[in-house]
UniProtKB/TrEMBL annotation:
<dbReference type="InterPro" id="IPR042080">
    <property type="entry name" value="RNA_2'-PTrans_N"/>
</dbReference>
<comment type="function">
    <text>Removes the 2'-phosphate from RNA via an intermediate in which the phosphate is ADP-ribosylated by NAD followed by a presumed transesterification to release the RNA and generate ADP-ribose 1''-2''-cyclic phosphate (APPR&gt;P). May function as an ADP-ribosylase.</text>
</comment>
<dbReference type="GO" id="GO:0016740">
    <property type="term" value="F:transferase activity"/>
</dbReference>
<dbReference type="Pfam" id="PF01885">
    <property type="entry name" value="PTS_2-RNA"/>
</dbReference>
<comment type="similarity">
    <text>Belongs to the KptA/TPT1 family.</text>
</comment>
<protein>
    <recommendedName>
        <fullName>Probable RNA 2'-phosphotransferase</fullName>
        <ecNumber>2.7.1.-</ecNumber>
    </recommendedName>
</protein>
<keyword id="KW-0520">NAD</keyword>
<dbReference type="InterPro" id="IPR042081">
    <property type="entry name" value="RNA_2'-PTrans_C"/>
</dbReference>
<dbReference type="InterPro" id="IPR002745">
    <property type="entry name" value="Ptrans_KptA/Tpt1"/>
</dbReference>
<keyword id="KW-0808">Transferase</keyword>
<dbReference type="InterPro" id="IPR022928">
    <property type="entry name" value="RNA_2'-PTrans_KptA"/>
</dbReference>
Length: 184
């Protein structure tokens, strides 16, 4: 069983490999972002990151953000969202709650209020269904600021939303007029 420190390190490593740099360890993701579990474990071993199936099961089961998912047969794994490499997660359009939230660092607020939310290096803008999650996300980058997103207004204006397996709401962008800074 992995201790807490190793679990976090392995989760970060898997995020890097399954979202951004599969080629770093010599694996290829299919069009849906899936990697073969046996190939992933072998490639991790070759890269000096020994990983057993029990370790992988533990990381997937205990990740607080449910960043990873197994295929129904358990033979493939992928990141639930957040890819910078081109993948199609097969997520269908979904009706979001009327309001969603985005957590960011205070330092980025002027740019966001001027240009809106953009995917940057990712494929989609990530939004939370609750402000508390957005605070945690924003805290990773500095003093957190939470933006309220008028999701209902965006849908009425023709924007499309999808929701990932772990409950993160995804859209291609949010123009500044649909954002409001929440007081802290």
């Amino acid at each position: 069983m992995l201790d807490e420190k190793r679990t976090v390190r392995m989760s970060r490593f898997l995020s890097m490999v399954l979202r951004h740099q599969p080629d770093k360890i010599g694996i290829t993701l299919d069009e849906g972002g899936w990697a073969d579990v046996d190939e992933l474990m072998a490639a991790c071993g070759r890269a000096g990151r020994r990983l057993t199936r029990a370790d992988l099961d533990h990381v997937v089961a205990t990740n607080d953000k449910k960043r990873f998912a197994f295929s129904e047969d358990g033979r493939r794994i992928r990141a639930s969202q957040g890819h910078s490499v081109e993948v199609d997660l097969g997520l269908v359009p979904a009706e979001p709650p009327g309001v969603l939230y985005h957590g960011t660092a205070a330092a980025t607020l002027p740019l966001i209020l001027r240009e809106g939310l953009r995917p940057m290096s990712r494929q989609d803008v990530h939004l939370s269904a609750d402000a508390e999650t957005a605070v945690r996300v924003g805290s990773r980058h500095g003093r957190p600021v939470v933006l309220e997103v008028d999701a209902a207004g965006l849908v009425a204006a023709g924007h499309v939303f999808r929701v990932s397996a772990n409950g993160v709401w995804l859209t291609d962008g949010v123009p500044p007029g649909w954002l409001r800074t929440l007081p802290r």
